[in-house]
Amino acid sequence: MTGNLLGVASTRKQVSIPKLRSVRLPVRASLLAVAFLGIGACEPTLPDPVNEHSADFNSAYRRGLDLLERYRLREAQREFERCILLDPQASQGYWQLGRVQLVQGRIADGIARLHKALDLDPSLGAARELILETYLGRGREALEEGHYDEAREHFANALATDSTGYEPLYQSAITAIWRQDDGAAEAFLTRAVARHPEVLELRWHLQQVRAMSHQGDADGFPDHIARRGRLPGHFVEVAATLGVDKMDGGRSSAWADFDDDGDLDLAVLGHPELAYYR
Fold it and tell me: To the nearest whole percent, how much of the chain has pLDDT over 90?
């Protein structure tokens, strides 16, 4: 998941995301893993050959699956293309050919085949999930490389696939923040909170975006240190004031909405007692 929204937004005009190949490779690797391995558990059962397909279709389909499992992609591609020629109305051929093309890096072709499979069989949820994960993966890759318009396009496609999903809405909001479109970010987060009210993080992010839009300085967020008349960048000791200095050695801390009032609270674990601030 994208990192702390406050940190991202408050520095968006000062820093850029590193454009390193080492950033790019893990995203692509995970995308290929989704296409090749991640959907295995959702593999559709081959229909009864007596009732649904010819023996030639079933034979080509099984050969294609075997070749795909052994990563012989060109040969698997030919078998699934043969399935489509034998029965253009069967979703299975398009579904498996789409998987092969994604692994080959032919993203647009793979997505088109998966959409065709869905058109023929709207109940093929695994195809929809793979389309969604492909768009999300490409969007994250573009976002990490600083290609914000490209990321927006991929996340828009993800939203078209799943208009209420947490990840498409959240990533669209993050992209809008990087594009300095706080209005769009607020709209995406408002939709996300309405659909996923149990996720405290979304509500907190929405508060920060509204602060950027309506109360912020030139960089979006108010400079609380400057407001108090101190030099920016200096830390101020407030533990005693907040009542969280009750220990001689801190062990860990956590932010959460412990009292369920919609705001983040702080719990600090140490010796001899637990400190709590809300």
Answer: 50
Selected from 2.115.10.20, 3.50.50.60, 1.25.40.10, 1.20.140.10, the CATH number assigned to the domain covering 25-132 reads: 1.25.40.10
Q: How far apart are CA 81 and CA 101, in angstroms?
A: 11
pLDDT band at 80 (very low <50, low <70, confident <90, very high): very high
Give which of 81, 70, 143 is closest to 109, Cα–Cα: 81
Q: Which two tokens stand for residue 15?
A: 């820093």
Q: Could you tell me which residues come within 8 angstroms of residue 190 by beta carbon, excluding any fewer than 6 positions away?
A: 206
Alpha carbons 118 and 79: distance in angstroms, whole number: 20
Query: Which candidate, 102, 155, 158, 108, places its Cα nearest to that of 129?
Result: 158
What are the CA-CA distances from residue 276 to residues 161, 181, 196, 200, 271 (Å)? 42, 36, 27, 18, 13
Q: What is the pTM of this model?
A: 0.63
